[in-house]
Amino acid sequence: MPGEIHAYLDERKAIVHTEEDRRLVGNAAYEAPSEDILTDALLSLYLGKNVLLKGPTGSGKTKLAEHVSALYNLPMHSVNCSTDLDAEALLGFKTLIHDEQGRSQIIFVPGPITKAMTNGHLLYIDEINMAKPETLPLINGVLDHRRSITNPFTGEVLTAHANFRVVAAINEGYIGTVPLNEALKNRFVTIEVPYLQGDVLFQLLKSRSKLRDEKLLRTFVKLSADMLSLIEMGQLPDEAGSIRALLDACDLAAYIPPIRAITRAIADKLEDERERAAVLNIAETFV
């Protein structure tokens, strides 16, 4: 990583936040499959680029965003996209309040984008391709060189603080998702976030799960590798390879038989009977 970024991160560490902002700073708990992933994300944000994290469910995209938030000491505001996402969920809304004298007034309650832009924080847009195509163009100006938006509720032109940064995440090909249009994609630097494998995965399971049997932990790493092979061949859905699910299985396996743990944490989450059987067939060859 370039020395200037190291120096910048050191400067950021010295910033003292309010208690509320401090609670919004993420945890530095992401384990990268390769050092390039974290380095490129940090470099892109340092240069003022928007970063799009692209990868399957459970590969650690949100963890990576939180990790960046921690390293940059930037409070993180999150937008969870869905078909119901609208301008109010992004920017904020007007509401009626009453003061101590009983007088009524309408105030604007800022949303995650407004807060992040105003305060120079990190904005995390999760599952950005779940939003309706007509919703996201609202923030095109936020994501390009203008770094500004006209608030439709107040008429105010909001220009982002210099420290404002944007990270988004995408799961491609999932039910309910829509392809990002070219205008939106061109506003991001894209970083692939694959599943962890091998020794890196072993170290993560060892450090974060309740399972202490290293031989059994290695078995779970092999199980993950075989499931990823079936995912690549289209015989299992992406969620079968989720690191979260694998950690759940390891935690359970500290107390119950491994096959039962795998059934509860991984196999039974799958809707197709053949997929559930495939996971258990792999598991039975190892445990």
From TrEMBL:
GO molecular function annotation: ATP binding; ATP hydrolysis activity
Record domain AAA+ ATPase: where: 47-199
Cited InterPro entries: AAA+_ATPase, ATPase_dyneun-rel_AAA, CbbQ/NirQ/NorQ/GpvN, P-loop_NTPase
N-terminal signal peptide: none
Protein name: MoxR family ATPase
Organism encoding this protein: Paenibacillus roseopurpureus
